[in-house]
Amino acid sequence: MSPTYVYGVVAADAVLPEGLRGLGPSGTVSLLADGQIAAVVGDVPVDRPLGTRDDLIAHETVVDAVAGATTILPMRFPAVIEEAGVVDELLGPNEEFFLRALTDLEGRVQYTVKGRYEQDVVLREVLEDDEDLRALQEHVRSLPEDASYYDRVKLGELVVAALEQRREADAAELYDRLEALAVAVVPHQPSQPEDVIDAALLIARTDIEAFGEAIEGLGEAWSGRIRFRLLGPLAPYDFVSSETVETGV
Amino acid sequence: MTVATQRASGGGGNVERSGGGGSSGLADVIELILDKGLVIDVFVRVSLVGIEILTIDARIVVASVDTFLRFAEATNRLDLYGKGKGGAGLPDLVQGMTESGSKGKTTGVLEGAVEKVGDALTSRREDREEAPRRRPRQRVKEQEEE
User: Fold this and answer.
1) How far apart are CA B9 and CA B6, in angstroms?
2) How far apart are CA A168 and CA A184, in angstroms?
3) Other Cβ atoms within 10 Å of A208 Cβ, number
4) Nearest CA-CA distance, residue B47 and chain A, Å
5) Other C-beta atoms lying within 10 Å of the C-beta of residue B19
6) B36-77, pLDDT tens digit by residue?
7) How many Å lie between the alpha carbon of B12 and the closest alpha carbon of chain A?
8) So what's the ipTM on this one?
9) What are the chain A neighbours of B33 within 8 Å (beta carbons)?
């Protein structure tokens, strides 16, 4: 009996891409099949705790490399169980759940799109649109730094509020465009005031090329105002959920 | 000028692309694999292995006042009726350099925090004598002001 790391679950006939390197000492990644499904497994370092930067990156690299080739249901980091449990507890009793999820996601892959304002461009817009802000900016500028603390906080607060207002309109337009491209979209709350959009998209593999071109077109259309980042292909992290599992059934 | 070069070559277009494999940076990786995906505990009970896990408790805290001050600073840098507006050449060049310098500075907040995530992930290696815990909770919170 040895501890086993589980990266995710795939169809039993899935073929793993070459060159995968897991987080265990051997680095090997293989399939452990049961019925129509298989777990993507590897060994686990036993002489040290898990959770280093390299461990996290190895987990993500394996999962997303597999996702590039075939549908994988990704496990959340970390996922360690006894080897015997992979079949007896993970795959066996949950085959129906995994099969359904794999079927739902068949031929689809996740991309994440993030958009961020070109800060100076949008700040300029904000100032040009608001006379009171300009007045406050002038006031702050006229004061020595020590004396302007509260006015600076006020100015920043108003600017952040104006950015968020602007984001609402821009994000609505972007989501309209993205929803037309994707099978499904999961929006995330942007984490910084200058972030416009952070969205997970489920894309059909057959549409990947067209999708890439459409995103490039989006980047071109908003060029100079919003900068986009496209992550993927990724495993469908945002489109799997443990919450629907009925354990023990 | 360096910035202009980077932009022109960035991803061969207007969109910066990264595949998986940590190429997109640790912050993106953490966002994906710690907060999302199937939780093994939901499926498996008996054969869970008690392994020791580093406590990943990195917080990207953007205190509201700091955020406001950052944007006040960025706003104050702007010169709406910039004198160098009409002319090409040196004034534009100088302005461009100032802007790129400040851009580096403002994004530094997040990058600094991400560095800290990296540190947190590697700095706990010494905690080995700690008794192995069974499925300890670990979360990375990206805490932000909204």
Assistant:
1) 5
2) 20
3) 14
4) 5
5) 16
6) 999 999 999 888 888 888 866 555 555 688 889 999 999 988
7) 10
8) 0.86
9) 56, 59-60, 63, 74, 76-77, 237
